[in-house]
Each structure stands twice: as C-alpha cells, then as structure tokens.
Design a protein that fits this description.
Elements: H1 11-20, H2 26-34, H3 42-51, H4 57-64, E1 72-73, E2 76-85, E3 88-95, E4 101-107, H5 115-128, E5 139-145, E6 148-154, H6 161-168, H7 173-192, E7 205-207, E8 219-221, H8 260-264, H9 271-287, H10 297-306, H11 321-330, H12 342-353, H13 363-366, H14 413-439
Antiparallel strand pairs: 1-2, 2-3, 3-4, 4-6, 5-6, 7-8
C-alpha cells in the first residue's frame, strides 16, 4: 500500500535504504549530503539528490514509499521503468560491478508459473544467448531472484518501429525496405542456429538512435525465445521424449502479423512464418496501417487466411510495383510460395529498394528524432503509489487508451469455435426473421 503524505518515510530511513541497497556510492552520497539543507525531510533529500543527478525520479519515488529493496535485483540496480506489457515490465538497469547499463525485463508471473514453464524459460534463453548478430538484441543474462524471473539484454536507445510510425507516419519505402532487410539478415542468422522468432512485428524491432554519420540507422530484433512462453502445458501433461511442449490448441503470435499456418498450429510455424510476419511489418512501415484491419483478433486471423493480399501502393502513391510484388511474395498464403529463407528475402528486398547497397538509403529520413527526455512523463508526482516488480498488483497510475496495433492475444480453438457458433446462430436468426417478414 502506498504511504500517505502524513506517513512519509523518515529522512533517516530514506538514507538507510540508499546505503543498505547500494543505490548511490557512499562517497558521492556524502558529498551531496554536505550541501543538503539542514534538517531536510526525506522528500527534500530526494529532490536534492535528483537535482544532483545521483537519483532518478523513479528511484526517488520508490524510496519515499519505503520500497528500497525493489530497486535491487541481484547484481542489478533498477534506474527507470521504460515499458510494460503482457510479457512483463522493462527497466533500465545497471550492473553493480561492471557498470554496464542494460534493459532488464521482469516477466509476468503467469509466464513462469510451474516448474515445467521455468525449465522452458531457461532452455529458451540458453538458445537465444547463442545469437550474436548486429541486428539482434544481445542477451546477457537470465536469472531468478526472490521469485522474479528476469532477462538482461542489450540496452537499445531509440524507439521501436511501431512507435516510430505511429508518431511520424509511414516511412519512405527505401527506408522501410532497409530496416526490413536488416531484420531479414538477423533472422537468417537465427535460422542458421535453428531458431524461429514466431512474433515478428514492428514493436519487436528497435531502432538505435546513435548512428554514425553517413550510415543508415541500425535496427535490432528483440524478444527472441519469448513467444512460446505463454501456453506451456500443464504439469501433468506428459511427453514421450522428455521435451517441453506448447499446447497444440493455442495460437501464439500477434493477430495483425500472424501467418495463416501459425494460426492453425504452432508446430506448423517455421522460418517462413517469420518471413510472412516480416512482410506484414513492411506493409505497416510504408502505409502506417496493418494489412487486415479489424476490431477482433479472430476476425484478423480469418482475413490473413482468406482475403486478398493488399497492395501498399493502393494506399500510398509513389510506392513502386517492385515493393508491391515484394509484399505479395512475403505474404503468400502458402508457405511454399514465399521466400524459403531470410537470405532470399534480403536479396529481393535490396533489389526492390532500387539501390546498389544500403549506404545509398537517404540517411536523414532513416534517423528518427530522439526525445530529449524519454522518461519525462513517468512519475508525475512523488506520492504516486508504486508497486514492487515482484508483485502483480495494478498501479494507481491513470490508465491511458492504447495506441497502435492490437497487443498480443491468445485464442484457443475452443474459443474460436464458440465465437463462430454464436455468429452463425445470429445470421440464421436474421434470415428466419427476414423470411417471415417476406412471407407474412
């Protein structure tokens, strides 16, 4: 429970938490305290340390709520919360010994709620740690502390492509193709290691804001190995081969980018399913909308299997037919009609760009504007209720309407069948009513 103003933590307790959990080096803390107002309250000390750039607003808020322990996760000190979603919460963190700033993702407890799921988590992370490529976010660590399972990854400063398009509009087709080409080369590296992503989408592609002069922006694929965590079978579901299986009747992926075969069965998904999702991603980058809009996940899934492949040029004038053909090839309903591996796709993408190499891409258009303070909107007041990363309690922060593509949804075939039956019943009732009206 959040503390009220009258029960604010004392200054002594505030400083004790800073020292006990090694939030600020002792020497730096002492120098700052020497200039602090005499008899300052905990809130005044927090403000002073914030102004001295020794404490972040996020850390100050948690310390004032008496939640110093939540800022320390093993060897990692949490600095800022930078995102949250269905998979968990992501923090900017620092390794206490190495001083390296990383992205630390604490998984939602329901993703690792059984010994089988935990084993699957560590197995997937071991496989993902073998991926070393400029276009894949590097995995540094995976661990469990006080019941919290977390991943430690390379910190990529910059927006994901979904956010970039949502804020700036569709990208020039050459820029979009260059980003997709880079993703294809990253997927090809994973393919050589026997890995499939299964959830390629714009929000899982990060764009580095630090770019060398004269070079196009660098994008990196995130969340390798996480797509399969949600639907682990129950503990009593045995396996003849001692492997950890995912429920065959569960759909994994994001409906706006889901390949038809992956919607039917997870085990039919292979690297060509990632290529389909990448084609959907390219469509979004150049048009600013998903290929098959809809209000419900099931509706979108059906459209991916039945509707004609849309042409980007029908929505955005100036997109050449080569890009239309590229999207059509990547989004072919039959996996056999797509590119059979990411390397083939990367070659075709370069051709569709109409340039000899990536250095010809208009760099000024490829680099996004970087926010001066990406955390400015976080923690607007000191007394806002804060929840430790080990708890699955709702925050008291006012919720905001979601933007962009619909987040990941999971549908079982049983749920899909029930929805279909209800829909058919409604159609039948309408037809009966119409016939009675005509006859009567």
């Amino acid at each position: 429970m959040a503390r009220t103003e009258s029960s604010e933590i004392t200054a002594d307790a505030f400083l004790r938490h800073i020292r006990d959990y090694r939030i600020i080096p002792e020497s730096s803390l002492n120098r700052a305290l020497a200039n602090a107002p005499s008899g300052a309250t905990a809130k005044a000390l927090a403000t002073h340390l914030l102004d001295s750039k020794l404490l972040t607003r996020f850390q100050g808020a948690r310390l004032l709520q008496g939640q110093g322990p939540s800022l320390r996760l093993g060897q990692y000190l949490l600095l800022e919360e930078i995102g949250k979603g269905g998979m968990g919460r992501v923090f900017r963190a620092e390794h206490s010994t190495m001083g390296r700033v990383v992205a630390l993702k604490i998984l939602s407890s329901d993703l690792v709620n059984s010994p089988r799921a935990k084993e699957f988590f560590f197995r997937e992370r071991r496989a993902a740690s073998q991926l070393t490529h400029p276009n894949i976010v590097t995995a540094f660590d995976a661990n469990e502390v006080a019941g919290a399972h977390f991943l430690v990854m390379e910190m990529v400063e910059g927006p994901n492509l979904e956010k970039l398009v949502r804020e700036r509009g569709p990208l020039p087709y050459q820029v979009a193709c260059e980003y997709v080409r880079q993703v294809a080369t990253g997927l090809d590296h994973a393919f050589e290691q026997g890995m499939v992503h299964r959830d390629i989408k714009p929000s899982n592609i990060l764009l580095k804001s630090e770019t060398e002069p004269g070079k196009a922006g660098l994008v990196k694929i995130s969340d390798f190995g996480l797509a399969r965590l949600a639907p682990i079978r129950a503990e009593n579901a045995g396996s003849n081969h001692g492997t950890i299986m995912v429920d065959e009747n569960t759909i994994i992926g994001t409906p706006d980018y889901l390949a038809p075969e992956q919607a039917k069965s997870l085990h039919q998904a292979d690297i060509r399913s990632d290529i389909y999702s990448l084609g959907c991603t390219l469509f979004y980058l150049v048009t600013g909308r998903v290929p098959y809009p809809g209000t419900k996940g099931l509706e979108k899934i059906i459209k991916h299997s039945t509707d004609a492949i849309p042409k980007p040029s029908s929505l955005v004038p100036g997109i050449p037919p080569e890009v239309d053909a590229l999207v059509a090839k990547m989004m072919a309903k039959d996996p056999a009609a797509r590119f059979q591996n990411p390397k083939e796709a990367a070659i075709a993408i370069t051709s569709a760009m109409g340039v000899e190499d990536a250095t010809s891409v208009p760099v000024a258009l490829a680099i996004p504007q970087v926010e001066a303070n990406p955390f400015e909107a976080f923690q607007s007041t000191w007394n806002e209720a804060i929840v430790t990363p080990f708890e699955d309690k709702p925050s008291t922060t006012p919720s905001r309407a979601p933007k962009g593509p619909v987040p990941k949804a999971v549908f079982t075939h049983g749920q899909a069948l029930a929805i279909a039956i209800v829909a058919l019943a409604m159609v039948a009732s309408a037809m009966v009513f119409a016939l009675r009206y005509l006859v009567g």
